[in-house]
What does this fold into?
Amino acid sequence: MRLFRLIKIVHVSARFGLDRIVLDSTSERLSAWAGRLLFWRDLSAPRAVRLREALESLGPIFVKFGQVLSTRRDLVPTDIADELAKLQDRVPPFPTEQALALLEVDYGRPVDAVFKHFERVPVASASIAQVHFAELHDGTEVAVKVVRPGIERVIEHDLGLLEAAAYLIERVWVDGRRLKPREVVAEFAKHLRDELDLMREAANCSQLRRNFKGSSLLIVPEVHWDYCTSRVMVMQRMTGTPISQLTRLREQGVDLKALSRAGVEIFFTQVFRDGFFHADMHPGNIFVSGSGKYIALDFGIMGTLEERDKQYLAQNFIAFFRRDYKRVAQAHVDAGWVPAGTRVDEFESAIRAVCEPIFDKPLKDISFGKTLLRLFQTARRFQMEVQPQLVLLQKTLLNIEGLGRDLDPELDLWKTAKPFLERWMNEQVGWRAFARHIEEEAPSWATYFPQLPRLVHQALQHEDRDAIRQSLAEIELQQVRNARWMRLLGIAALLLAAVEIWHMWRG
It folds into this structure.
């Protein structure tokens, strides 16, 4: 099956002329030869349209790849970025009859018996699922998300190809093992499979809504659990303007500069306060309410960070903002991301050469493509290892940069994030953090303290009590020896003092 899938990928690429897109920018001669060999192809459509249609034909993994590219206007031409943006909410829907049949199977009764009204025409269609508006019998307006039938099989085939490609990269490329392609693919596969379980997505939505309850920046829909299954998710219907429709937002009086700063704050709040962040923040998943708040949609991919990861990332971000490149280099060595024998001063100098040019410039003047390329070259020189657990965070940072560029080309990402991170770090150290940890641990202490006498008694009555007594005896013997040495040293000191006094008296 993987062989057939590979053949399809090659066939689709050739049919839509993806080879010409690459060759036209690298070798005109090879491009001309390809045109003569495959003369029957109709390549009259613009290259961006052909690329989008090819990605749609290849399925969800390739659609998601196109979604990420659409936010990186500093890396891809404008015509391609504009066309790939359509993948965010214009993926062709599957037949409504299939959606109705799936709902009837999951609910065990006709759709019209479950909902007071169910709109047959989907309002949005994505790579994994599509959404229909509906109304509950109590009049509540909801959005019903339904998984694409048969999508699991397609995804498994594509993941198999990615795993095979990752294995080949490790075997034939000198940098393959350092980049950990198989671990990266495994991490991506895990989150993609999780995205197929809509009960998990509903739980993610509920958690994020709880984290931002009462927030003045972000609105998260309410989940209607009684109507959710592993293939169906029903949530509150949200009304807003897609964040990509900048003209409409301006007409509504939305402050785009403030909106861009709020997006940065929301992201860093999710990452560093909660360790739980929306990891699929492309424009198709974000609306803006009439009051200028963000509305989050599509919670299939969420990232999590451990406390150690948060501390490490915060220290690195703040060190970058302060241009403390030595601290950045040392943090990488301490974390084991580069070999222990790495010279910190050399690594510091390399990081400075990459990062220093990007400061004191507005976002629109920074070439992140060149910056990323130079960082990759630095990574190769110092054998820096890719960290698979942070792949989602890196992907989300790319999305945040793309959104910030669209909303406010003058946005200074560093100045916007630095005060938040410094405030967060201050809360992690000092007496406030100490008081918070005491409060968090107090319930456990209240449980264990009354049990201490019994636990000590059990320990003394344990079958290893002879070993404990022997250890205590050895400690006592060592203390006796130390006491003897201290007495001898004291006597020696007195004798030396007496000799000195005698010499002074004689003199």
Notes: The first strand starts at residue 117 and ends at 118. The CA atoms of residues 183 and 379 lie 18 Å apart.
